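**User:**
My hope is that you can spare some time for a protein that puzzles me. This is the protein in question:
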Amino acid sequence: MKFAGDESGWQLSGSLDPSASSTTATLGTSDREESALNMFKQMDLKGKSRDDTQLKTIHQNTINTVRGHSGQAGNVQQISTSGVDGRVVIWNL
């Protein structure tokens, strides 16, 4: 997720991952809660969980490093992320 901020505080400004933005950024808190509730209801009714082993994001596990990749201090053009999933991704800002 991308955030923009100043002295008055931080605001969510979007997602770096285009595959995640359609699912995460558009859902409000109540929508996510309702979606989770429906998922558990289906698990209870069917006696099993959904077979969603692939996340709808580029990284499939925790991101543990974020670093500036190109640009200069105060004007970073790209960042790189690496995660527990073994992926290294370069993001355009």
